[in-house]
Batch of 4 targets.
Target 1
Amino acid sequence: MEYGPVSRRKLLKLALTLPAMALMSGAGSSQRLLARPIPKSGESIPAIGLGTWQAFDIAGNASARAEAAQALQRFVQLGGKLIDSSPMYGSAESAVGEISKELSVHEQLFMATKVWIRGREAGIRQMEESMRRMRLTHNRPLDLMQVHNLVDAKTHLAVLRDWKAAGRIRYLGITHYHESAYAELEQLIRNTDLDFVQLNYSLAERSADARLLGIAADTRTAVIVNRPFAEGAMFRRVRDKPLPGWAAEFGCASWAQFFLKWILSHPAVTCAIPGTRSARHVDDNLGAGLGRLPDEATRRKMARHFDALI
């Protein structure tokens, strides 16, 4: 998960009572969740997704499975679509497939997973197993297959181009979570016809802004942001610190929304995927997709404020 539940619960005590959350939760709300187009197709997807690393690795844990089901149901109720997984995440792919079928939301989701192995035939076997776990068939293709952490990327991308042409997947992409991979990411974004790139980007990890986001925009590559809370480190940094009053000017009711709105206000970002199996945190996260986003001057002000926190 992206955060520790105790520290974040404290941060949410006030935030979840504010109007922004009520507006999104209400059945008659006129506010729509922020959506962004996938540049290569023009298809629109909501800008807040759901990550499953650790959060949906729940095999044999009935209480965790119930939590995941509540979170996924709430995610769809609030307009979320993109859910991201990987064979690296233990039982997460199976949990996504099983729970989404049980909740009858399987067809409403934009499902993304990854290949994380070396070798063409091994990759094919792993991808076919992932699709089986996520309850996908030839009649319901996977929305997005990504090469996880660039493992044997050129080999798998060749297969994925064939699968896309055959209709087995709708989009293809690559992922990494660390700045050390930016040179390889840059090369692949520039020279490979990708639909998506997934990378780390947050107020705590900003290097992608200088090196990759402009290239993604120039090549019409959609950007999925992982580690939006730097695996919870950002919440630990703001623990017991009040949200600045001026955050309300752009509809920000919590630190999670502060962090996510900063990310989403970059025009190259298509979707951010905070990970959780808490329905409360889903409420909070998707609240960042409501109301206006900070402008460039406000983004700089947000960064200065975050940097000043000790």
Target 2
Amino acid sequence: MRSTIHLVSADDCLILRPLMQPVLDAELSRYRDLTGVDVDAVLAFARRLVDERPRSAGELRAALTERFPKHDPGDLAYACRNLLAFVQVPPRGVWGRTSQVTSTTAESWLGRQLAENPSLDEVVLRYFGAFGPASVADITTWSRLTGLREVVERLRPRLRTFRNERGRELFDLPDAPRPDPETPAPPRFLPEYDNALLSHADRSRFVSDEQRRALSRVEGRIHGTVLSDGFVFGVWQQREGTLVVSHASRAAKRVLDTVAAEGRRLLRVFAAGAGAPDVRLERID
């Protein structure tokens, strides 16, 4: 999805992967020139190779170089990535460190075929179930698919509509939970690239442009985002055993205390048995 790696269930993989093919086709045509390449032959060769056993990117390029010496192996590997249903197999990452990426096809790994006629309508309904109320532009941002207005109009009788503060029409499932605005939302530490923050075109609903600019100035590897009361409070990092939360706005002591407490809970998972967890909150100047 969005031409990036997502963690999904096996059932969802078989449905989502064929639906997302137009996005991958468009990306391939933008970034690679396959003029004169027998793409079908390349894909057939690569499929046999990775179905035999998962291969690293280097192994795949080396084999493609030997079999198709007249073509750029990077272009051929990119075509395989976008046109075959590749999955990264474990152990891709283990707790606290990473390992080499090796890939095979979803069909080989799962022992099942991709869905022949997956329902985009049902996927859009599930999107609303996870992220609604949302606009058509939001669904497009989440999936990068185009032409979704037609899908939403077809589904309109099954949806409930709203208007946001700017008058934009939003859609949701009729029976979706819609808590009272005063319902407390406790602090949460999200990982990098969490879909909760990447699945809307309008991100002002949970972070201001000013705050995004301020947080972008934080140096070093950012591990994720911190939410407080449902809005972005800051970003978090690990520095020499300390969990550091950098935030851009003034906050009451109660808010700082609850964020620190949630951070200590996270550290107990990251560093079990490593002594008292240490959390530090830093205000961005």
Target 3
Amino acid sequence: MIPSLAIVLQRWFTDTKDGHSEWYVARFRRLAAEGADLAGEARLVDAMLPPGGRVLDAGCGTGRVGGALFERGHDVVGVDADAVLVQAARVDHPGPQWLVADLASLDMTALGEVEPFDGAVLAGNVIVFVAPGTETDVLSSVARHVTPAGFVVVGFHVDRHLTLSEFDEHVAAAGLRLEHRFATWDLRAWHHDADFAVSVLRHA
């Protein structure tokens, strides 16, 4: 499983060196050229969406998840705070709408996207790399753009900056509830020794 550091109001900007975004773009272009499986998260989200569903790729990075969902026939809008990564997504995955914005204060209407989403995905450790203290705001902001029957699915390594219990507190504070939890994106059963968690969230 390949972690993405692509994100929002982030430790990305404070914990990484100059040129890191460019390195990150080059890394995923190399992996794609080598035939690496970069669509594992997208397969799960695809199964949850209706045919031609509308999906928000929150913390889209270079667009690998949203691009794969677009190829599966979905209406995709990706958002990331890093303009370098968003530009790479526009070049490498034409078709979806790729936007630069902060997830903690996300206003899709102001960005010209007025229709709600059937679901949203925060893949590749997005929630781990948001600015400390904004986790509830990020989850709440993303959920606000999802239909009442829609979902938010979040995957992250539980030993990086954010514990699972802390995450669950943010989930509740954001007006969401946990529906399912898995240890991997390919739906292996959750167990308390797992170092990765995939959480399917719904409106409370």
Target 4
Amino acid sequence: MSTLYGVFRSRASRPLWLLGEIGVPFTHVPVIQAYRLPDATAADAPLNTASPAFRKVNPQGQIPAWTEESGLVLTESLAITLHIARVHGGALGPADEAENALMEQWALFAATSVETPALEILMTQADGGDRTPEGQAAIAVNAEKLRRPLARLQGHLAGAGWMVGNRFTVADINTAECLRYAQGHPSLLAEFPAVKDWLDRCQSRPAFQAMWAARQAEPA
């Protein structure tokens, strides 16, 4: 059986959402980030990204990681979701090579154009920086970085409704999870109504709701 390493409060949320959608059996090993532990090297510390046992799976010490009985090991969240969708995803995966290429394109788009500024917004807000002039300025800079990719998504989603193939797929999961980091911005998504509507539809799905409930149940 395949194994997914990582807690819900990490980028493991992406494959966990997908796996919830398609119902493929797997083993879940909840590896936690070492930086979240007072002493990740303590003898009684839970399995974490600094643990020797996990470093044998991913020497880089990052989650998620995905292993299969064949010996395949994947250590990038979007590569994991794309692979699972191709092999097990049915309608959530590509119907042909053209769709496969589009799903890869949108995954790279989400990772390179959306995730970093969206995550900067989230981290600034989480640190209380949105209550300082410097933090507000940083949020404004990163919101501006997102407007160009969001405009592209707005045009695409206004016509298609979904990222690929006029249906919900792994491309929607990957892009929605990267954009989720910016949802706390007070007004940004309102500028792009087709994007906001699409994100609301993605997050209203039962598999997302189940993943999110499990994430909220984990210690922060």
